[in-house]
Amino acid sequence: LFPSVIPAVASGGTAQGVLFNDYDSAFNTLRDWVNGSLDLFRDELTLILFPVFVHCFLDLIAKGLVKDAHI
After folding, report:
1. How confident is the model at residue 63 (pLDDT cuts 50, 70, 90)?
2. For residues 35 and 64, what is the distance between their CA atoms, to the nearest angstrom?
3. Orientation angle between helical segments 39-46 and 20-35, nearest 10 degrees
4. Residue 59 near residue 9, CB atoms below 8 Å
5. Most buried of 9, 52, 61, 63 (most Cβ within 10 A)?
6. Contact at 8 Å (CB) between 20 and 65?
7. Whether the Cβ atoms of residue 13 and residue 59 lie closer than 8 Å to each other
8. Mean pLDDT of 2-14
9. Are 21 and 43 in contact (CB under 8 A)?
10. For 9-52, how does the pLDDT look when each residue is reduced to its tens digit (9 = 90+)?
11. Could you tell me which of 7, 65, 8, 56 has the C-alpha nearest to residue 28?
């Protein structure tokens, strides 16, 4: 689902290897997929967006990309 981020994150990418744009693009893809899902599943799938956002935010900070992690 997120081909640009998975290899970098799985390999423990560094600040140079994992860019904010990768996280932004992957999260936007997930959000668009959730919003485009069937009405039957959308409410439940929407619940995963905030925890995924928080994980990405904290991961950016942990990788030293504090400037990119601003809201």
Report:
1. confident
2. 31
3. 140
4. yes
5. 63
6. yes
7. no
8. 49
9. no
10. 545 555 455 677 888 899 999 999 999 999 999 999 999 999 99
11. 56
AA letter at 6: I
Structure tokens at 25: 């693009």
Q: What pLDDT, on a 0 to 100 scale, did the predictor assign at position 30?
A: 95
Query: Is residue 26 a contact partner of residue 2, using CB atoms and an 8 Å limit?
Result: yes
- Report residue 24 as tokens: 């932004």
CA distance 54 to 49: 9
3-state SS record for the chain: CCCCCHHHHHCCCCCCCCCHHHHHHHHHHHHHHHHCCCHHHHHHHHCCHHHHHHHHHHHHHHCCCCCCCCC
